[in-house]
Design goal:
Elements lengths: L4 E5 L3 H12 L4 E6 L35 H9 L10 H18 L4 E5 L2 E7 L2 E6 L4 E4 L1 E4 L22 E2 L16 E5 L3 H12 L5 E6 L24 H15 L1 H6 L2 H10 L2 H19 L4 H12 L3 E14 L2 E8 L6 E5 L1 E4 L13 H8 L19 E3 L5 E7 L5 H4 L5 H15 L11
Parallel strand pairs: 1-2, 1-7, 2-3, 7-16, 8-14, 9-10, 9-14, 10-11
Antiparallel strand pairs: 4-5, 5-6, 11-12, 12-13, 15-16
Bound molecules: flavin-adenine dinucleotide.
Flavin-adenine dinucleotide binds next to α1 and β2.
Length: 449
């Protein structure tokens, strides 16, 4: 069947880039459906503060795989002072919005950007019908799901309704996390990863002078970037989690841990694909927390600010298990067991911010679209329950295990299949490959293959 019209659900980085790539391939017409006021920026590049920097250098943040310096050149023209380093995420959002806008203006008849929430996808002959929350129904020959991560779960042991109003922030991007706080207050951040870093910077930027305590099981937090020499790895890394750990340790002694982690990048997807399900489980259970903080590093200037907050006693990162959270107006009393200790510690906090990180478990989602598609058997969780099950070609696998050539998914929700599919360099490759597939492209000028 000829694919003439593609509906893309979700207009964040993944969906917007997919639309741009379809146009660049002179592929099918696209309708990009986004429920936010503006498409292209998504979660990462819209809800940021100017202090929130990209955690990848500008030189590796091009949206276009065949033009690796595209973003760096764009920055050079608009913000030359930022061209070599880690630009603010908001500025990357401007870049994406401009790219989408340019694509739209160049071919308005081939790209429609629709504001609304897709609430259902229904098979219709050889194609699909997409239902929107305002009652519109759109027909398409293919559908691409680009919904982004699912919001974080509320950690066990917290009864949000029992807490005073304004005490619990279910996710960091809703509202002003510093509102109503005074210098005597303590804020508890649950989680110590990249989201916690964002929150600490945000509280600092909003002038919060009190104490921030971040808690996670292991108390690990993202490491800082530093210059790394080019890879000298001349072998395929081993495939089991234990061997991989030994390999990274031994390479770290030779080339430093940053290089040892970075040089795995070309192999990660292959290693993940080749690993057995048991091995992937093992990796998630035992190594993921370490992998995340070494692999997803922060800009040196961000690390310096976080370090200064820690040195001043304004930020403390503790390893421990949260046990109980009880209302204690206007905040809460929090009891936790520090890692490796029997004694229980208590905190009196004014606010608790959930920074446990994005989720991907479809069986726990509240999203109407995903729930309906799941109930209809059109999508299913991947075996690790960290996203939507897809093939290596990003085709969605249904409840019967059948792949749909015209129902695809993109971005972080495909991490069960690809693992490394969170950052810009990976998603731009994925959207490019999907555009080629849907456009029947065999060769695109300038691709440089
Ligand atoms: C805080 C943060 C910082 C990051 N920083 C970096 C970085 O510095 N460098 C890097 O390489 N990567 C970074 N990433 C990772 C990466 O860029 C993101 O994961 C990427 O932006 C994912 O884009 P997405 O479009 O898949 O998801 P999202 O950005 O979440 O976009 C999904 C969009 O879909 C919309 N949507 C969902 N469901 C529906 C529906 N039913 N109907 C209509 N619309 C819907 C949502 O409103 C949303 O706008 C960061 C991620 C985060 C969260």
């Amino acid at each position: 069947m000829a694919i003439e019209h593609v509906a893309i659900i979700g207009g964040g980085f993944s969906g917007a880039l997919q639309a741009i790539n379809l146009l660049r391939h002179e592929g099918p017409r696209a309708t990009l459906i986004e429920r936010r006021a503006e498409a292209a920026r998504g979660v990462a590049y819209s809800a940021a503060h100017p202090d929130h920097l990209l955690n990848v250098r500008a030189g590796n943040m091009s949206a276009l795989p065949q033009e690796p310096n595209h973003f760096a050149r764009w920055l050079q023209q608009r913000h030359p002072e930022l061209a070599d380093g880690f630009a603010p995420r908001l500025i990357f959002g401007d870049y994406l919005a401009e790219l989408l806008d340019d694509a739209h203006r160049a071919a308005p008849e081939r790209l429609r950007i629709l504001r609304g929430e897709a609430t259902d996808v229904i098979p219709d002959g050889e194609g699909w019908r997409i239902c929107l929350d305002d009652g519109q129904v759109i027909a398409a020959d293919a559908v691409i799901l680009a919904p982004g991560n699912l919001p974080p779960h509320i950690p066990g042991g917290i009864d949000v309704d029992a807490l005073p109003a304004g005490c619990f922030a279910p996710e960091p991007w809703s509202g002003d996390v510093a509102e109503g706080l005074g210098p005597e207050d303590t804020v508890l951040v649950i989680g110590s990863g990249l989201t916690m870093i964002d929150i600490a910077l945000l509280l600092d930027a909003r002038g919060f002078q009190g104490r921030i305590v971040a808690i996670s099981r292991r108390g690990l937090s993202p490491r800082a970037h530093e210059a790394v020499a080019p890879s000298t790895l001349d072998m395929r890394p081993p495939t089991t989690a234990v061997q991989l750990l030994r390999h990274v340790r031994s390479r770290s002694r030779d080339v430093g841990w940053r290089a040892a982690v970075d040089e795995l990048r070309p192999y990660t997807e292959g290693l993940w694909t080749a690993a057995t399900l048991a091995e992937r489980h093992r990796f998630l259970r035992h190594l993921r927390a370490w992998w995340d903080v070494h692999r997803h590093r922060i800009a040196p200037e961000v690390a310096a600010r976080i370090g200064a907050m820690q040195a001043a006693g304004r930020l403390e990162i503790v390893a421990g298990k949260l046990l109980e959270v009880d209302a204690e107006a206007p905040g809460a009393r929090v009891r936790y067991r520090p890692r490796g200790q029997e004694e229980i510690a208590t905190l009196h906090v004014r606010r608790i911010i959930n920074a446990t990180g994005p989720q991907g478990d479809l069986l726990r989602t509240e999203e109407p679209l995903l729930r309906r598609m799941l109930a209809r058997g059109l999508i299913r969780p991947d075996p690790l329950r960290i996203g939507i099950d897809v093939t290596q070609q990003s085709e969605v696998v249904d409840a019967n295990g059948e792949a749909h050539p015209t129902l695809l998914a993109l971005g972080p929700m495909t991490r069960g299949t690809f693992w490394e599919i969170v950052a810009v360099p990976d998603i731009r490759r994925q959207t490019w490959a999907v555009a080629r597939k849907l456009s029947n492209a065999h060769w695109v000028g300038g691709e440089g293959l």
